[in-house]
Design brief:
This protein is of the alpha/beta class and 606 residues long. Helices cover 58% and strands 10% of the residues. A hairpin with an 8-residue loop joins strand 7 and strand 8. Helix 2 crosses helix 3 and helix 9 packs across helix 12. The radius of gyration is 29 Å and the shape is elongated. It starts with a strand and ends with a helix.
Length: 606
């Protein structure tokens, strides 16, 4: 038989586990029929439900096309889950099984019934599916209904759950259900003892549940509700930990999640959602899709717990801390560690309220900023100019959006570096945009960071270091600011300090952008550690922007063939490059270091 999954994902599979290429709206229709326990609906009602935003005749055309696609799907050895008869669509329940079937067996013990559905408990109904407007509230109602079913199964089974792992799993299930049922005292009691009414109220406020208002529905279809998302609480995802001591890590994260649930000014996403986000290759898209503003990533080693908090809209680390848990101290100090982590997160949330308000109240500006930021992930001139265009559009829609002004500044100085033509107008524009960002928001660390970089390339190394020190002071865990501080230290010829700072930046951002490695390579080169410079450049995903330095490094270790190869590649990108003109504008404080760079470039054949 076929199998329909409706919890956490929506898909139809064969008994061999192969996923069938059913249209998404066809699967939604199948889910509607099975959950509403209806044998059939009229085609016009189904078309209105699935395509209610278009003309009824166009909706019927779309439905006919979808039916034709479903009829063409090969189902070897299986019956079709739906039949299409005249103006009716009829369910064929004998053709498939469904997740929901696991809820209906009352012949087993409470523990057996719960264990049969345990894997589904943390997976909300049709989670993450893009729904037609007229099915949003139906889905919300179903999610509530099944959450109540799971809650009752869990509570009935709890007295019989004796194994430690099963108890921990049951508590995690209760945490997941709290996102849907935030006022449920039985779940709170199961997790952490009987709560006071004040704690229950705080949880209700923290989760910010959507309010549902029922309106008229098409004849014969379930009531449709309108969902209000007026609650503007920031959402936080606590990432499951990485590390070797997974049993202890799980207990710690469970404790931290419970503590976070009691905060009034944050909504915590369910563990299932957090797990999906952690494992998805396009994490940024999921964060935006689920309106997650903050991400707390954790990892556990034998002697420490590392936690870092990221402000998702700007992908910037706003707090990071390592907690010593040597030996078995974590077993006795769990509560203390939990409270330290929770307190730090709470403080950071309050300190970034202004930024969060900007993103929440001007979503179109945030979207434009996010688009620009993604282009800046690649060190390529076309991408930098696309980023500038996106930031310019953002500022046109909301002139006071300071992060976009900060992003504009970055595009100007990055172009100045990559073209290596010494265009003063680019640096002037970078300085102006960074100053604008600071004037709009004096607490914005990225504004000072971009100002510091602009001052550096204008030749004002001391002013650069002062601005960057302010950026790090405002955000001690802002990896990009620390990297820029390291880069300015390179140009100030303080290479040992520079390498120390860049290593700190990489520690905070273990999968850094290429410019971190570029800075580390520059510091290594000026320290006459040419092989280290090459090693850093080889870690870059796209070394095309740094081929001049790579050619000089290979020349200094005596590999003329590789030096000439990278020199030729560099000149393909910038045929007008001139060593003396470049050295006349690039700031390097120590004349000895300047001569070392000149020597490498000349040996490479520039």
């Amino acid at each position: 038989m076929l199998h329909l999954s409706v919890f956490g994902k929506l898909e139809l599979t064969t008994d061999g586990g192969d996923v069938l290429a059913f249209p998404r709206k066809g699967l939604l229709l199948l889910a509607l029929l099975i959950t509403e326990k209806k044998t059939e609906y009229s085609r016009s009602d189904c078309a209105q439900l699935l395509w209610g935003d278009v003309d009824p005749s166009a909706a019927l055309v779309n439905l006919r096309k979808m039916i034709a696609r479903m009829r063409d799907i090969d189902l070897p050895g299986h019956s079709a889950p739906m039949a299409f008869l005249g103006d009716r669509i009829r369910l064929n329940p004998s053709a498939f099984t469904c997740d929901i079937d696991r809820l209906g067996d009352n012949s087993r013990s409470p523990l057996e019934r719960y264990l049969a559905v345990e894997a589904l408990v943390g997976r909300p109904f049709l989670h993450g599916i893009d729904l037609p407007a007229k099915m949003v509230a139906w889905c919300a109602n179903q999610e509530q209904f099944y959450a109540q079913q799971f809650r009752q199964l869990l509570l009935d089974a709890w007295p019989s759950i004796s194994e430690r792992d099963q108890q921990r799993s049951a508590r995690q299930a209760a945490l997941s259900l709290l996102e849907i049922l935030p006022n449920n005292p039985e779940l709170l009691k199961l997790i952490n003892g009987a709560p006071t009414p004040a704690v229950t109220n705080r949880l209700s406020a923290a989760f910010g549940m959507e309010r549902i208002r029922v309106s008229d529905a098409p004849a014969g279809l379930p009531a449709i509700a309108e969902v209000s998302t007026a609650n503007a609480l920031p959402r936080l995802a606590l990432m499951p930990p990485r590390g070797t001591r997974t049993d202890i890590a799980g207990a710690l994260i469970e404790d931290i999640t419970i503590e976070l649930c009691a905060l009034r000014h944050i909504s915590v996403v369910a563990p299932y959602t957090a797990e999906r986000i952690k494992n998805d290759p396009d994490k940024a898209t999921l964060l935006a899709k689920y309106s997650i503003s903050y991400l707390v990533d954790t990892s556990l080693s034998d002697d420490s717990l590392f936690a870092q908090m990221v402000f998702a809209p700007t992908d910037s680390v706003i707090w990071a801390e390592r907690f010593a848990i040597g030996g078995n101290a974590v077993l006795t100090e769990r509560k203390a560690i939990t409270q330290l982590v929770t307190r730090a997160i709470s403080q950071q949330l309050r300190s970034t309220e202004t930024n969060f308000f900007d993103y929440r109240t001007h979503p179109e500006a945030y979207h434009g900023y996010l688009t620009g930021s993604r282009h800046l992930n690649k060190l390529a001139l076309p991408e930098i100019r696309r980023a500038r265009s996106a930031f310019r559009k953002t500022l046109a829609s909301y002139a006071e959006f300071s992060p976009a002004a900060s992003g504009m500044a970055r595009t100007f100085w990055m172009e100045w570096v990559m073209t290596a033509r010494g265009e003063a107008s680019l640096l002037s524009s970078a300085h102006k945009a960074a100053s604008q960002a600071i004037a709009q928001n004096p607490q914005l660390a990225s504004g000072y960071r971009e100002l510091g970089v602009a001052e550096l390339y204008l030749g004002n190394v001391d002013k650069s270091l002062k601005a960057l020190a302010r950026a790090v002071e405002l955000s001690p865990h802002y990896a990009d600011a620390i990297y820029s501080q390291a880069d300015s230290l390179v140009h100030a010829s303080r290479t040992e300090e520079a390498l120390e700072r860049i290593r700190r930046a990489i520690d905070l951002n273990p999968m850094p952008p290429d410019d971190y490695y570029w800075s580390a390579a520059g510091a290594s080169y000026l320290s006459a550690e040419f092989q280290d410079a090459i090693a850093y450049i080889e870690k870059m995903s796209d070394p095309s922007s740094v081929r001049r330095l790579l050619a000089a490094s290979w020349a200094m270790v005596g590999n003329t063939r590789k030096a000439r190869f990278h020199r030729n590649k560099a000149l393909e990108l910038n045929p007008q490059f001139d060593v003396e003109k470049w050295l006349a504008v690039v700031p390097i404080k120590d004349p000895v270091h300047r001569e070392l760079y000149r020597e490498g470039l000349l040996k490479a054949g520039f």
